[in-house]
Glucose-6-phosphate 1-dehydrogenase
Amino acid sequence: MNKTANQMLIIFGASGDLTARKLIPAIYNLYKGNHLPENFVVLGASRSAMTDGEFRRKVVQESAYLKDVISTEDADFVSKFSDKIFYEDLGSDYDTDYDLLGKRIGDLNSKYHTSNQYIFYLSTPPSLYEAIAKNLHNQGLTNETEGWKRIIVEKPFGYSLKTAKDLNTGLQKYFKEKQIYRIDHYLGKETVQNLLVTRFANSIFEPLWNRNYIHHIEITNAETVGVEKRGGYYDKSGALRDMFQSHLLQIVSLIVMEPPINSSAEEIRNEKVKALKSLRIMTDEKTLFDHTIKGQYVASEIDGEKVKGYREEEGVDPNSKTETFAAIKFFVDNWRWKDIPFYVRTAKRMPTKVTEVVIHFKTPHHQVFKEQDINNKDNKLIIRIQPDEGILLKFGVKVPGQGFQVERANLDFYYSSLSDSNIMQAYERLLLDAMQGDATLYARADEVEAAWAFVDPILNYWENGKDVNTYGYSAGVWGPTNSDDLIEGDYTWRNPGPHLVDDSGFCVIC
Ligand SMILES: NC(=O)C1=CN([C@@H]2O[C@H](COP(=O)(O)OP(=O)(O)OC[C@H]3O[C@@H](n4cnc5c(N)ncnc54)[C@H](OP(=O)(O)O)[C@@H]3O)[C@@H](O)[C@H]2O)C=CC1
Ligand SMILES: O=C1O[C@H](COP(=O)(O)O)[C@@H](O)[C@H](O)[C@H]1O
């Protein structure tokens, strides 16, 4: 394991939700797991007026996200952790001079020996990224003559291809690309990283991982929750920008990519960029009409409880056409994947929370056993990203008795069965990587732009095209009924339950 050097983490937008809900709990767990260096401090910065003590109380002692954890800890231990946290009020906006902030960073650096090594974490609206970068630069805080400097930026990284390019250009005026870490918390999930290992550390899958053996690929990302308190943000974003452009295209790139020559950040990211660039961009309205479906949840009852429709949510325009369901069919124009359809859907207010990838293999080219029905014909490899993380291979076995009746059996692996199943949460893993200077699990500028290049025409069509429908679906079902029509042939979406293997699943033949 790499050693983590002395450093300071400076969080902008520190008064916000992400800092309290994800960042400070992640840092706490890293501290507890002994992953932080001896000389390490966190400095929160935002416009809200707070003292160090008030900020510590907000994000540690009184934090709803740490309360349960710290209640079981020794008070001294918690207090030692709190002592590493500081706060600086930025004044009325993020684009004034940073003299006071610069001085505070300098003072903390001298007192706590953080070796002029700084990570700036931008947990603010993206419209502030360039101004923050410029002001840091003006303070000499981007200069690496003494100690490295890194900047982590949160999603959404852009609103379109153009805005993503503008953001890249804006940041690159003040930071070199190697200093910029674009976070995508799905890349911090063990099971997403395991896509690389499953493919490239085994010789049994890769020979089959192509158009000769794979019939189609299906990815489902479903959440039971609605937009919760983020209606204002979500209504301007929608499922395609919120989940598909970032997290799901990251997963797609790991499935599509060619083997990298080694596991370095640059080699892996080079292959991911090539993969994203090979997605066939849909330009004509007919293809966009046939291959994309958008939907929106309407009021319904789930388990006897009334659930609001999307348009009734706080912060949402009552006439909104923003999608809470998106399903896209697309092709990949390269040697490996020619003509193999990919189906990806993401949605809120689904029956269960699940993210999984299903690789559907082709049926044997000659049918020896005629009794096999369509659902039992194809071998499937199901890679469960969350929850009940694991992998399931479905294959045909003979039903005992006369004749050759074929049924499906399961070969399964669960992460929970590993002896060291203490899986680091995504933000912990990603923060630790950035602290150690490993950008493998962060998106590079060209990667983000390639993803936007694919998504932009769909968004343009959905926003301005002819005959675009936003189909309603009741909260608690698997989206608009016509979303099954997207899938070619006799196939439908696999609508999974909360567990990798469903109720009938643990028997050998099922
Ligand atoms: N919360 C989450 O689960 C996730 C968040 N993100 C991203 O992380 C970033 C931060 O998110 P989150 O903490 O939820 O956001 P919040 O709105 O809760 O916090 C952002 C902070 O930024 C400061 N701020 C400055 N200008 C503005 C402005 N115009 N509008 C709102 N806040 C402003 C505010 O602090 P002050 O007024 O004190 O300066 C605020 O506390 C965003 O880019 C978001 O998209 C990404 C994934 C998940
Ligand atoms: O980035 C986001 O992700 C969450 C889903 O994350 P998960 O780790 O719980 O799968 C989603 O709810 C949110 O809308 C989106 O902004």
